Description:
198 residues, alpha+beta, eight-stranded antiparallel beta sheet, 30% strand
Amino acid sequence: xxxxxxxxxxxxxxxxxxxxxxxxxxxxxxxxxxxxxxxxxxxxxxxxxxxxxxxxxxxxxxxxxxxxxxxxxxxxxxxxxxxxxxxxxxxxxxxxxxxxxxxxxxxxxxxxxxxxxxxxxxxxxxxxxxxxxxxxxxxxxxxxxxxxxxxxxxxxxxxxxxxxxxxxxxxxxxxxxxxxxxxxxxxxxxxxxxxxxx
Length: 198
């Protein structure tokens, strides 16, 4: 393990984005060409895309991918698993330590999103207290929060939601969780919302 790995925890996210359209391949490739991925390690295989680096850059890239696809107007789904502190991390550490601000912008994009997230703090004491604090943090972000089976449901602005999720993730990691995992399922432009389905 390098000295840098001992001092800096590598954050990462394994995600898949699904534009519900016949030209999904072109939409995904077009989005990946538009966003700045220079501050993360990134690899795509037949199942997911994985990005690794500092927390702020990992969230910046996943937010930008989702927003860029969703702003095309098609029904867009994102499934993501964020992790920090994984004892198995052994490469990609050269993508940590960036002091530059995340470069993907898009903060002026107005996009409504529904999501469900689950938080798993490992090795940090009373995990339920940590989870409840995370849920309260999302409420403070201006996001509508409600109960769901096996998760917490979120509704509201995409940028505010990602900002809140990043803060919850960071707070959990800093609270003493030795390995933090967060799963997120997001949906934008859903026909279910247009019908008023719950």
